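Task 17 of the worksheet. Students: predict the tertiary structure of the chain below and write it out as structure tokens. Keep your answer in the requested format; marks are given for formatting as well as content.
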Amino acid sequence: MVENYNNDTHAKLDSLGWNTDYKFNDDWGLNSDLSWSKVKRDNLRLESTGGSGAGADPTFLPTPETISFTTNGEGVTNLKSTNDYSNYNTTFLSDPGGWGGGPTRAGYVGHPSFNDEVKAIRLALARKLSGGGFSSMSFGVNYAERTKSKYEWQSDLKLPGGVSHAVVPDAFRTGVTNTDFFGNPFGMIGYDAIGLYQSGYFQTVDARVDPTANSNDRIFDYTSTWDVTEKLTTPYVKFDVDAHLGGLPLTGNLGVQAQRVDQSANINYVLNIDPITQNVIYTTSNRGAKYTDVLPSLNLSLALKEDMLLRFAAAVTVARPRMDDMAGGAQLNVTSDSQTAPTYKGQPYYWSQNGGGNPELRPWKANAFDLSFEKYFGRKGYVSAAIYYKDLKDYIFNSSKITDFTGVALPVDATQVYTLADANRIGVSTVKTNGHGGHIEGLELTASLPGEILAQALDGFGLIVSGAWNRSAVNPTGNGDEPVPGLSSKVINSTLYYEKTGFSARISNRYRGSFVGEVPAFDSSLTKNTVKSESLLDAQVGYAFQNGNLKGLSLNVSGTNLTDAPFALYQVGAPAFDLIKYEKYGAVYAFTATYKF
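Model answer:
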């Protein structure tokens, strides 16, 4: 079987902005900021398939094959196949696996489109102060309105002429691909699948109206089409600190903002597929929430000496939820009178939603505390140490919640009666919800050390090293703590460099420990996987001409990912060799020349 996967994204960004500063006098000033931006994005995911036959054509079934394989200790599997897929006359565009969609199917295309628009205005007044430990104050309001919509479109790729298989047209052949890397000595045909699609060679029908399409695809088109609107009004006041503590200079700021949120989403609920017309029966529900978060903050810097600073920060912080966690529909399960209703916390319910969006979802919220110490060596280097602690008051995870399904249409089914469901509209949704109680804590160390502060012979050399260590825990299910997704317990960055008389060279390494990440799946939904630790090595060498006719010319050679470190995913909790994905991208080299005049 030949599988040709392609991803292509096109985006168009338009934006406008206007910023105005106006001084009434020496003490008062006004700042206003207006902005608008809009992004239109199309994502193309193309899956073109082929092989020696077609699974849905009993007169032309694929040639059977025996495949042996070995798996090494890292989980990388090497296959050894016996069939020859290198001949364009015997390897066809087809559906060798018989995946449905009719006998002419030869692949799949998903082509969702997104529109994301943000309108914002900011008005702020500032006043200079003297005495009382404050140098100035400012107050104002920010307003932002964001609307994001997604339209899902997908289709089977059907061959022209009603045939079950076809040779790749000459104009789209790209040659034979070497397949030694997975154990096939013959090679495999290559072809421009996106070119075939864009040329109109494949016939496509929107899965919404294609009765031969997979029913899950047809339902997915409706449940993955949504729009969200969020309006954030944020008045605030801030004071800039300019004081002394025990005779030591103390600077910083303190303030508070109140974020008023008005969010709503249109969600498509699929009830069933009409057995006679084959139309997808769905209903659209608009739901949302309004709430206010009060967010105080304090940032202070104490100058212990001219070259030593002690910093402290405390704040209540929020991070907005993903819009696709607030939107996205689902297929509803409605219990009929002839069925036994399930129970939730001892109570029967007749409506249930598994997946989709939660328009009442609130943001991540934490009480955050930071303390750091910085030591400077003139203007040539510094060392710093910082600790932080975030007390999570709200976080986001999958869970079941009570949901009111008032106004949602009943299923269209002549064989069933839904009197009880119509009278009992409170049901259960398993969606993204807010959990409470958790923490993130960590330590960060940084050193930037020019060689000359150690010895004059090291003038031009330098070392920059930073390291971060953290621990995190939430208990969303009540069955024990788990780490917050996306956080590595250890990250270390280091750079050794030399810069003098126009010559520069540096080598850098970034190490990131393994972590649980939310990784896009094949349908762009997020799923939790363990991301393997990685160590990336980069280097560059350059020269800037200082004198003569070439003064102003700079030449630079760089290489990234020099060791070709793999990107690997595993199931959470699975052994390290139980791979989901193992990808290598190779090293990237670049040569640049710039000229300043």
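Marker's comment: The chain is about 5% helix and 60% strand. The longest helix spans residues 215-223.
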